[in-house]
Amino acid sequence: MSNGKENQYFSSDINDRERACFEIGIKLGALYHILCGIPISSDPQVIESIEQGIEASISCQPYVKSVKININRDKIQGTKATEFDYDELSGILIAAKVVLEFNSIEITAKVEWIEELSYPLMFIEEIRNKS
User: Which of 67, 98, 117, 121 has the fewest C-beta atoms under 10 angstroms from its C-beta?
Assistant: First the structure.
């Protein structure tokens, strides 16, 4: 729930639904851009620790109820041509779901690789009014 202190900085024309959409966009953008470029390996423990660490980090942001990140293990190359090679996270590997609650509005949003678009799309899956 909002404590209202920040509301003075937002236009009075913005309703709770619009504000919740704004907030979820911030969370998805942060999550995606934190993940992209992180060095990874095909080691399941490495992948799981990255998923859990970013979930914990994003869940610290205001209004976040839950975060679930899945890194597509099947698409990680895991081949090293030299000792200096490593894989890194990119949009094709990332699937994430964030649930946010702002006042009486709950939003579920995702980041997923959409094959037909060849793009890691960020989108709102559901908006619910909880009152």
Answer: 117
Owner of token pair 């919740």: 20
Binned at pLDDT 50, 70 and 90, residue 84 comes out as confident
pTM for this model (two decimals): 0.89
The edge-to-edge listing of strands for the beta sheet with 105-114 is: 64-71, 94-102, 105-114, 119-129
96: nearest Cα among 73, 127, 126, 123: 123
Looking at residue 19, its pLDDT comes to 92
Residue 130, classed as helix, strand or coil, is: coil
Name beta bridge partners: 124.
Answer: 109
Whether the per-residue pLDDT at 1 is higher than 60: the answer is no
Contact 99, 128 (CB under 8 A): no
For residues 119 and 92, give the distance between their C-alpha atoms in angstroms, rounded to a whole number.
7
